[in-house]
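It would be a great kindness if you could assist me with a short task in structural biology. I am sending you one protein, given as its amino acid sequence and as whole-number tokens for its backbone shapes. I would ask you to consider whether the tokens describe a fold that such a sequence might reasonably adopt. The full record is reproduced below for your convenience.
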Amino acid sequence: MVQSRGDDQLFQIPADTPEEVREFLDRGHHRASLVEDGRIMMDPGQVLTNIENTMRRIDADINVQVSIADDIATEKELMVMMDDFRMAEPLIVFLVNTGMQIMKADGYPAELVTKPLPDHYDITVLVPALTVNKRQHQIAKAIFDRRSTSPADLTEDDVAGEIEPLDLAGKIEVFIILFYMWGTKIGAMKHRADTE
């Protein structure tokens, strides 16, 4: 039996139901969309769950292999979320706020958690496979540092001035850069804790 999303009622999915439909209906599966006849059905809540679950996996094991496309959302799903659903700012704010909550809850030293990234920080040096636009990198770093040094969660209004002017590709790139920035900060804090 598979539990449907959005309610607590259980129902039996017919045996001939395609696998992707089964995954989409399964609350325990990370599939966030279903494409049929050129149309996409999205579960935005599943994307948020995927972000948090993936970040928690990285925090639990910095060496775990993750991929934004496989573990959070595909490029098409991010496009739908940020363009069709107009959720670029909410996704970005959710990412940085969730990252901060995880860092604060897991007992990392407060002075490291709230410290901004160094001025010379360059994600492409730490993740050479990642090619990014300099402007998007600067925007992502500014948002990351703003959240790191803020005692409160950021709101959509806190990032709108930087995110709204970007085209769709730029918004997705900022999201990806922020995800990697968080991962490198977690890695650095874990490394420091292991060497002390």
